């Protein structure tokens, strides 16, 4: 079993992780996890746990995990947006085919404001990109 376990374990938290070194090479043959660091994905900070000094291998593994985690989170963000597009389409179908007047009254203003806000942001960002592509004309 010890050959199958990774050398490091990352307990994910909202903005990073607690980093543990996994040890199965002890007298009891039990899995032990020794916390070695805390990492923050947002600011790239790696803090050794307690009075610990991290080895080059520790830092390399942690940085590698941070890069992979950032890519995973970015992919999830994009997937969430694609899901939101699906929900908007489903909402349009619901409003057109099944919603009652009372249900529409309940959600129309909030939906219109949210969509107006989103449209304003998207139009502004698109204009910024077009201006940047043209060289800032």
Features:
137 residues; alpha+beta; four-stranded antiparallel beta sheet; 55% helix; elongated
Describe this structure in words.
The protein is of the alpha+beta class. It has one domain (2-98). 55% of the residues lie in helices and 20% in strands. It has helices spanning 56-97, 101-133; strands spanning 8-13, 16-23, 32-40, 45-48. The chain has a 4-stranded antiparallel β-sheet, covered by helices on one side. A hairpin with an 8-residue loop joins strand 2 (16-23) and strand 3. The longest helix has 42 residues, at 56-97. It is elongated, with a radius of gyration of 24 Å.
SSE blueprint:
Layout: E1 8-13, E2 16-23, E3 32-40, E4 45-48, H1 56-97, H2 101-133
Antiparallel strand pairs: 1-2, 2-3, 3-4
Task: Give the gist of this structure.
The protein is of the alpha+beta class. Helices cover 55% and strands 20% of the residues.
The unreliable regions are none
Rounded mean pLDDT is 93
Our count of domains comes out at 1
The string of secondary-structure elements, in order, is EEEEHH
Helix content: 40-55%
User: What does the oligomeric state look like here?
Assistant: single chain
Rg, rounded, reads 24 Å
Order of strands, widest sheet: 1-2-3-4
Distance between the termini: 63 Å
Q: What's the β-strand tally? A: 4
- What is the tally of helical segments? 2
Q: Tell me the structural class.
A: alpha+beta
Q: Hey, roughly how much beta strand do the residues contain?
A: 15-25%
- Biggest sheet: strands, sense, closure? 4 strands, antiparallel
The gross shape turns out to be elongated
